[in-house]
Amino acid sequence: MKTYFPSEVTPEWVLVDAEGQTLGRLATQIAAIIRGKHKTVFTPNISTGDFVVVINAEKIHVTGNKLDGKVYTRYTGYQGGFRTETVRVALQKHPERVIEHAVHGMLPKGSLGRTLQTHLKVYAGSQHPHAAQQPKKLELK
Questions:
Q1: Is 44 domain-assigned?
Q2: H-run or E-run covering 124
Q3: Which of 33, 37, 51, 77 holds its CA 20 to 30 A away from the CA of 117?
Q4: CA-based radius of gyration for the chain
C-alpha cells in the first residue's frame, strides 16, 4: 500500500476575535487550525494548516487565580538574569505574547513546530495589517 501525501495544499487565512475568550480553550482551537486537523488532508508531518490572525488579545479571559499565580520565566544568559513575570503584568505590557506562548506549547516540537509558529499572527487591538489576504472570520465556541 502506498502512502498518500497531499500535494499543493493552499493555506487559507482565518480571523479569530479573542474578546471574552478563555486563554487555554482559545489556544487549543487555534493550534488545531494551524496544524490543519480540521482538514481531510491532515498529515502529522506536513504543514497542511491555515494562517490564523488573532485580534483583541488584550481582552482575553483567564480563569481562576492564573492572573497572579501563573508565572512566565526566562533567562537572559547573564548572571542575575533570571526574569519572572505574572500573567497580569504580561497582559499589560505585551498581550500578544500570552497567546503566542500558549499556542506555542501546543504545537509540535522541532522544525515543523517552528514553521507552524510563523502561521500565527496576534494583535492587541482590533486592527491588523492582513486585510489583503481576506481572512475569513471564524466564530469559536
A1: yes
A2: none
A3: 77
A4: 17
**101 lies in which domain range?**
13-62+95-127
Query: 47 lies in a domain?
Result: yes
pTM of the shown model: 0.92
Query: Kindly report the CA angle at 99 between 98 and 105, in degrees rounded to 5?
Result: 95
Using pLDDT thresholds of 50, 70 and 90, give the confidence band for residue 5. Answer: confident
What one-letter code names the amino acid at 124? A
How far is it, in rounded angstroms, from Cα 8 to Cα 31?
A: 21
Separation between Cα atoms, residue 133 and residue 99, nearest integer Å: 22
**What is the dihedral angle through the alpha carbons of 81, 87, 91, 92, rounded to the nearest 10 degrees?**
-70
* CA-based nearest residue to 32, from 20, 42, 22, 23: 42
Residue 80 C-alpha cell reads as 542575575
Per-residue pLDDT tens digits for 70-115: 999 999 999 999 999 999 999 999 999 999 999 999 999 999 999 9
